[in-house]
Specification:
By secondary structure, this protein is mainly beta. The chain contains one helix and twelve strands; from the N terminus they run E-E-E-E-E-E-E-H-E-E-E-E-E. The chain has a nine-stranded antiparallel β-sheet, with no helix packed on it. It has a three-stranded antiparallel β-sheet with strand order 3-4-7, covered by helices on one side. The radius of gyration is 17 Å and the shape is elongated.
Length: about 160
C-alpha cells in the first residue's frame, strides 16, 4: 500500500534585516512562532485528520521593488504533531517519515517572482525522505511593513 503525506506551507511569517542601507534585496528569517506548516490525512474516507510540524527554520530573500527573491525552509520531521502520541510515533517511524534516517523536510525556491500585489506562484523543490519533487505554492497574500510591535527598530517584517 502506498502511503503519502501531503505537506502544505500556507503561512510563513518572516522577520528581516536589511543587508545594507542601499541594498535592494533584504534577508528575512523564518519566524517559527508564526509559521504553520500543516497537512491533512484522509482516514480511509471516514474522516480527515489534521497535523502540523512544530519546528521550522529557514530564510527568505526579497527585493521588494522587483518582487523577486528566493526561499529556503527546513522542517524538523520529528516535530510532527497530530494531537495523538501513538499516531505521531507511527508517522515518525520507517512506515511514513522515517525521521531517524531523514530528519529534515526542505523546500527551496531559487527564482521567486511575485506580482506587485504580493500574489503569485512559487515554484520550488520539496524534499522528503530523500526524494525531491517540484512543488508550486500559491501565495494569496503578502504584506510587508515596519514591525508593528517595535517600530523603534525600523525592522521590516513580511507575512504570507
Amino acid at each position: 500500500m502506498k502511503k503519502t503525506l501531503a505537506v502544505v506551507l500556507p503561512a510563513v511569517v518572516l522577520s528581516g534585516m536589511s543587508l545594507s542601507a542601499h541594498a535592494a534585496t533584504e534577508n528575512y528569517t523564518i519566524d517559527p512562532f508564526h509559521t504553520y506548516p500543516n497537512f491533512t490525512i484522509d482516514h480511509l474516507g471516514y474522516s480527515t485528520m489534521y497535523g502540523r510540524f512544530g519546528k521550522t527554520s529557514g530564510s527568505f530573500r526579497l527585493d521588494r521593488d522587483r518582487m523577486t527573491g528566493s526561499v529556503d525552509i527546513r522542517i524538523d520531521a520529528a516535530s510532527v504533531d497530530t494531537g495523538m502520541k501513538k499516531r505521531d510515533d507511527h508517522l515518525r517511524s520507517p512506515d511514513f517519515l522515517n525521521v531517524a534516517e531523514f530528519p529534515d523536510i526542505t523546500y527551496s525556491a531559487k527564482n521567486v517572482k511575485l506580482k506587485k500585489n504580493g500574489t503569485g506562484k512559487v515554484k520550488g523543490t520539496l524534499t522528503m525522505m530523500g526524494v525531491s519533487k517540484p512543488v508550486t505554492l500559491e501565495v494569496t497574500h503578502m504584506h510587508c511593513a515596519t514591525h508593528p510591535f517595535d517600530p523603534t527598530k525600523k525592522k521590516f517584517v513580511c507575512g504570507f
